[in-house]
Amino acid sequence: MCIRNNSILTDSNFRDLGVAEALQRALRAEDYLTPTPIQTQAIPVLLTGKDILGIAQTGTGKTAAFLLPILQRLAESRVATGPRSTRALVLAPTRELAVQIGERARAYGHHLGLRHAVVYGGVGIRPQIAALSRGVDLLIATPGRLLDLIQQGQLRLDRVTHLVLDEADRMLDMGFIRDVRKIVALTPKERQSLLFSATMPQEIGRLAAELLRAPVRIEVTPAASTVERVEQRAYMVPMPSKRAFLTRL
Ligand code: AMP
Q1: Residue 175 and residue 173: Cα distance in Å, rounded?
Q2: 142 to 87, 160, 164, 183: CA distances (angstroms)
Q3: N or C: which terminus of the chain carries fewer CB neighbours within 10 A?
Q4: Which of 36, 55, 94, 170 to mutate to test the pocket of ligand 1 (most atoms within 8 A of CB)?
Q5: Helix residue spans in 30-133 (DSSP H)
Q6: For the chain, what is the largest distance between any 2 Cα atoms, rounded to a whole number of angstroms?
Q7: Average pLDDT per consecutive 10 residues, the chain (249 residues; last block may be shorter)
Q8: Residue with the nearest Cα to atom 13 of ligand 1?
Q9: Beta carbon of 32 within 6 Å of any ligand 1 atom
């Protein structure tokens, strides 16, 4: 889906949504001039501190929809984080998504002077321990490595004021829901919580009910699905003929 396609852009701008000047400047540098529908709906709500249940796929602009207000609120309340601690936590199912969110946080937060870190499994833990030692404002993490760091005494979650679960349905598919519940239980009850999911299986509905307080529900669907734009055909071809068939095609 093309996010710049005019048909899915709204006519408000980021200033109208209450986005701070320092963030607007970073957005201009990224060439984001017009908020997407989920940004238009979510940003003002999140800036007031409310919880959100977002039903949205990747490609809708959901990352900026949650990062911009959280970064803004973190920048407004300049509380010292303390060592081995974080004020905002974003949970993502995969390393790729975590890295991507980290890159977005770096771009949007360019003028804010906040500290962020990204932690995930499958790589050495020592650099991550070092990154957390002085504390961060925003931590983006996959659940397994996050629990490892907590169990090793390298991170505590009792200062978390903002919690985001991104792609919750994929977390469920990947078997992370128990870990997620353990992590949520370590955060203070008094916090702003956001849950994003492309689909809403029952288990995610239950998790949302446990996690969110009087959430505003925001649902966006991509403007055009692949099926409408791309002609698709299937050919059943026996294994030995596949190469010749493809060449002809
Ligand atoms: P996401 O759904 O968060 O993965 O975002 C999809 C893509 O759209 C990413 O490449 C973003 O950098 C880009 N994007 C998000 N918001 C905007 C915007 N308001 N204007 C232009 N591009 C955007």
Answers
A1: 6
A2: 17, 16, 12, 11
A3: C
A4: 36
A5: 37-47, 62-76, 95-108, 126-132
A6: 66
A7: 42 90 96 95 98 95 98 93 96 98 97 97 97 98 98 98 98 96 98 97 96 97 60 86 89
A8: 61
A9: yes
| Whole-angstrom distance, CA of residue 84 vs CA of residue 100 | 23
For the entire predicted model, the pTM comes to: 0.87
| Residue 3 Cβ < 6 Å to ligand 1 | yes
DSSP 3-state assignment of 123?
A: coil
For residue 36, the ligand 1 atom closest to its alpha carbon is 19
* Residue 128 alpha carbon to ligand 1 centre in Å: 27
Asked whether 43 lines ligand 1 (CB < 6 A), one says no
Measure the CA angle with vertex 206, ends 190 and 94; round to 5°: 80
